[in-house]
């Protein structure tokens, strides 16, 4: 008789509807838990700015995207550090966060590190795992800086969150300034190294040119009255060597002038498409996102509990569906 009851079919949907009170209870608990969490989590505000490569600004204004530039043969991809994605990686690195500790926070009379130590508030449960004196300030700074790269238009959006909207705007602008210093510093290093290399090449080319000129002049002075075929061939060989050395020296001088101009050229690493603003809208915690997530977990968890409980009853010979 017990085996007959176990073999009777049962509906998962009907079983779940039968336990609607359980679903209602878990959903109410989820809502209360979300409310408690949102109240416990300090409010944070976000400030953003958007930059792009200086060479891309005109293209963005007239509406040319990267694909159109490529089709027109005008796309020149950046190499090395001079790339918008490299900028994003540099900003979100821990080394960059460490440099941000010394940013002066106007209105508080201190730097960013001491501002966070004195005014940064955390949820109560974080204190159970990490005391205030063991708080990783660099990690907090690193977590507060976010980037978003738009590959289509080669733009970079920088976002900084803080519990004070004014501080968030100041810090995100400081991030831009330090990124600009990084890019200009790298460009200056490369320009100086290029100037050093072209100077060496120019000096070497000048020496070869002077030596070839001297050999040609000395040969002409000592054989100005001779017209033998072998001497004529030697004269032409020395003359060709002299002319090639002069051409190489002229090109090296031109490259040197270009490298020198590059060192003295004003550096404009990127253009600012959108400046940082002070936003009063709360960025986090997001009540709606927390509520939907917790309700989803509550519904899924309750469904598993109801169905597994029913399966267990059937296996143990409990009530049939």
Percentage beta strand: 5-15%
Distance between the termini: 15 Å
Mean pLDDT: 82
Quaternary assembly: single chain
Major sheet, described briefly? 5 strands, antiparallel
The secondary structure category is alpha+beta
- Total strand segments: 7
Low-confidence stretches: 1-8, 57-64, 69-78
List keywords for this structure.
7 strands; five-stranded antiparallel sheet; alpha+beta; 13 helices; 321 residues; two-stranded antiparallel sheet; elongated
Description:
There is one protein chain. With 321 residues, this protein is α+β, with helices and mostly antiparallel strands. It has 13 helices and seven strands. The protein has helices at 2-7, 12-18, 20-40, 57-61, 66-71, 84-91, 94-99, 112-119, 124-129, 137-144, 165-222, 229-264, 287-315; strands at 44-53, 104-105, 110-111, 145-150, 155-162, 270-274, 282-284. The strands form two sheets. Strands 1, 4, 5, 6 and 7 form a five-stranded antiparallel beta sheet that branches. The protein has a two-stranded antiparallel ribbon with strand order 2-3. Strand 4 (145-150) and strand 5 form a beta hairpin. Helix 3 packs antiparallel against helix 13 and helix 11 runs antiparallel to helix 12 (229-264). The radius of gyration is 36 Å and the shape is elongated.
